[in-house]
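pinging the channel bc i need a second pair of eyes. not urgent but kinda urgent?? the chain im working w is below, pasted from the shared doc
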Amino acid sequence: MRLNNKIAFVTGGSRGLGRNMALQLAQNGADVVITYRQRENEAKTVVGEIEKTGRKAAYIQLEAGDVASFDSFATNFALLLKDKFGRENFDCLVNNAGIGAHSPIGQTTEEVFDSLLNVHFKGVYFLTQRLLPLIADGGNIICISTGLTRFAIPGYAPYASMKGAIEVFVKYLAKELGPRKISANVVAPGAIETDFTKGAFENNPERKDFIAAQTALGRVGLPEDIGGVVAFLCSEEGRWLNAQRIEASGGMFL
C-alpha cells in the first residue's frame, strides 16, 4: 500500500482498535496524530512505537462527546500540524473513538442514550464538520461502525442505532465532498478481541466460542484484522472506494 507521506488523524488511537490502525497507517508510510481521553501515558507509548517505524507522530487530548470543545480543539490541532509536521492540513480522518454499553431497550436510561449519542454520532458529526477546512482535497474520511447494524444482538439497540446513523452520514459526506475529491467510507468490525472486550470474553468463555462458531473464518477478530482495512482505504490503492460500508467481521452470521 502507498500512503505517500500522508498525515492520518485517528481519534481514540491510544488503545484498542485505534492503536492498531495508527500503527498500520505508520507502517505503510503515513505520519500519524492520535487522540486520547484520559490515559496520556498510553498515547505517549503509541507515539513512541510509531516513531520507531521512522514516521512522525503526535498525540492530543480530545473529549469525543463534548461538542462545545471542538472549536478550541480544531485550533490546537491546526497549530500541532504546523509545528510538528510543517503542514496546514492533513489527509485522512479516522473517526474511531467510542464507548461501549450493553443496554436492553427496556432498561436504557436517557443518560446512557445521550452519552452514546454524543460520542458515536453527534460528536462524530460535528468534529468532522470542524475539521473539514483542515482536510486536504483528495483526502479520506473513515468512520468506524459495527456489524451490529446488519445483525441484531439483544442489548445493543442504542449503540447500533448511533452507528446506523453514522452509516447514513457517510453517504452524505461522500456526496457533498465529492467536488473536493474527498472520499468517505465506513468500516464495520464484527466482534474483536481488544482490551475493551477481554474481560467479557474471559468471564464468559462460551461467548467467545459462540461467536467463533457463528463466524465463517472460525474465530473472533483481532485488532490487526481492522487496522489494515483502514490503512488500505487511506492508500492510493483504495482511492476509488467511496460511500461504501466495508464489514470486516470474518463473515459473522451469514
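so The mean pLDDT is 95. and The chain has one domain: 7-248. — does that match what u expected or am i reading it wrong
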